[in-house]
Amino acid sequence: MPLLRSAASSTADPRRGGTAWKDRLGRKVSIRYRLHGDPEHPFSEAVGVVASVTADGDSEIVTLIDRKGRAVAIAAPDLLAVKVFPL
Q1: Which one, of 33, 73, 81, 25, lies nearest residue 49 by Cα?
Q2: Which of 23, 45, 55, 82 has the highest CB neighbour number within 10 Å of its CB?
Q3: How far apart (Å, rounded) are the C-alpha atoms in residues 19 and 70?
Q4: Is the full-model pTM beyond 0.85?
Q5: From CA 28, how far away is CA 84, in angstroms rounded?
Q6: Residue 39: what are its φ and ψ, rounded to 5°?
Q7: Neighbouring residues of 77: CB distance < 8 A, sequence distance ≥ 6
Q8: Closest CA relative to residue 28, chosen from 80, 73, 64
Q9: Which strands make up the sheet holding 59-65, listed edge to edge?
Q10: Rounded distance, CA 35 to CA 40, Å?
Q11: Which has the closest alpha carbon to 26: 2, 52, 44?
């Protein structure tokens, strides 16, 4: 399978908890995700390497490590946009 430039172009859409996230372990991604409880700032962005994908009920939790070494955990249903950087 050829490498995809965008996770959204995958048949297993990682924004919806598809299996494509496990295929992106170790890859650098840029994501925009929904924030809860702050109407003035409804979303945020993160750039980092996909460190882990864990099950959480019906969805998945995707953990990124940014360049400062901080972990960012996002529930797959909260993902609004995903870009996978080329190797």
Answers
A1: 25
A2: 82
A3: 24
A4: no
A5: 6
A6: -65, -25
A7: 15, 16, 17, 59
A8: 64
A9: 71-75, 59-65, 43-56, 28-34, 79-84
A10: 10
A11: 52
